[in-house]
Amino acid sequence: MQNKDRIWWRRAATLGGLLFLVAAGLSIVLNHQTGPIALVPHTFRDPARALVVLAVGSMVSLILERYVFRTGLPGLPARQVTVFRFLSRLVLYVAVVLSIVAAFGASVTSVLFGSAFLTVMLGLAGQSMLGNILAGVWLVVFHPFDVGDRIEFMTWQYPVVMPSFPHEVMVPTHSGTVVDVNLMYTTVAFDSGLRYAVPNGILVQAAVANRSRLDRRRLRIRVDVKFAHAPAEVLDGVRERLRRVLPHPLVDSLEVLVGDIGPDTYGLVIHVTHNDRTDDELKSQILAEVAGVLTASAVG
User: Fold this and answer.
1) Distance (Å, rounded) from C-alpha 214 to C-alpha 277?
2) Which of the listed residues 113, 141, 158 is the one where a domain comes to its end?
3) Number of domains in the chain
C-alpha cells in the first residue's frame, strides 16, 4: 500500500510540474510583444489567443480526468475526494473561461464584478446548465452521499411502471452506487449494471436514501396465500423454518403475521431487521423457505 501511495504522489508531483511548465509556456506563447502570437496579424490575434487557451485547457482537463480523477487519492476519505474532484473541475473551467475572456482584451475584474455579468449570471441561474452546476455545488457542500455510497432516490422525472402481479404499494425508487460527481452530472451505477449520468439538478430535488449510512433497516415481505393453507399452520411453519436458517440477530427481529384478508386469500407478512447492503439475497432465502412450508402444507 505504501508503494502504491508513493507511486501516486510521484505521479501527482510529475503532473503538477507539467502543469506549471504548461502555464509558463502558455504565458510566453501568448505574449503579444515577444511571443509567437505576435506573428499573427493583429486582426486575428485575439481569436488566436482564445483558441490556444481553449486547446490548452482541454488538454489539461483530459490529463486530469484520465490520470488523476480516475485513480484514488490515497489517505483521503470519499467525502474529501469528491470535494477535491468537483472543485478542481470548477476552478479549471472557470479559469479557462476567464482566460478566453482576457484573451479577447476584456478586463477580468470588470467581467466578474460588472452589473451586466451579475445580471446574466442571475438570469441563467434558473437555466439547465448553470442550474446543474449550482446543484453540484449544493451536493458537494451538504453531501447527502459520497462517491462509493449506495443510494436510492425517488423523483417524478423517472417514473416506473407498476407490476401487474398483486403487490402492496411500491415506492418508485432507483438504486445504485455513486461513481462520480462532476459539474453537470452524478454518475450512478444502477443495479442493472448500466451507468446513468443523472443531472445534479434532479438529485437535488429528489428524495435520496443513503444505504451506506444505515446501520440496520427493516425488510418487509408479503405473500398472498390461499385459504386452503390454514393460517395458523403456515404461521407456525414459517416461524420454525426461518428460526432454523436465519442468523441469530435476524431471528430476534423476526415477525410473521397475517397482514390482511381477501375474498379467497390472506396476506402473509414477514418483517426482519438486517444490515445487509442489498435485500435480494435475504428476500430470496425467506421466500424459498415460505415456498417450502406452503408445498409441505399442500402435500399434507
Assistant:
1) 9
2) 113
3) 3
